[in-house]
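Exam revision sheet. Question 4 asks you to relate a sequence to its structure. Input first:
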Amino acid sequence: MMTDPTPTLRLWLMDWYGWMLDHDPLRDVPTRTPFQPGRLPGLSAVVPATFQLPCRPFMEKRVSMPRSFPELEMQELPQNRVAFLVPKTGTYLRIAPIPTSSVDYLASRPLGWETFLPLTMEMLRGLSLLMTPDALRLENDTGTFLPTPVFIEEMTLRFGDRDLPLFLNTAALIQIGQIMPGHTARIALTEQGNTAPVSLTVHRQTTPEPATP
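Answer key, structure tokens:
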């Protein structure tokens, strides 16, 4: 039996509000769930390892179910984000959080709800550390420690009065995920696209041990 030797990359997808594109195995439909440190969503996109856009992703469910996805084209958007076109209908995959949370393929163009941030396993590790209380200590140049962040809209973390757009900091997420327990690293974080990065000292704590994918 022959297998396809083409290297692939697995991506998980964050929506506009910081939730993750997921799969409901009971109804066999795509859904969305809040980001949870250490938990991999039940739906991922498998793309060629070169990851050149546009491309045709293979949407893979962790729990195998028979209902197929429509053929999708992953399209490039500014600042590391993507949209999913359904070529057959000319419409886009979207997250509609109101009036009730739903996922469909009915959008006519890619605006906020149709925008996704692809995250690798390495990025998810860094994000899990950031979102786990007491796993990290982020210290600025004045010696002030930032609080554990919360998600706000547009794929952004809020640390007190400071915002950190994740789509501008994908490389920093990977660096944070590589810090070993008990070690410290200097990480450059970008708060706005038109400003210089701000360097913070990131201390990886030894206890409690955070959940990471």
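Marking note for examiners. The chain has two helices and 16 strands.
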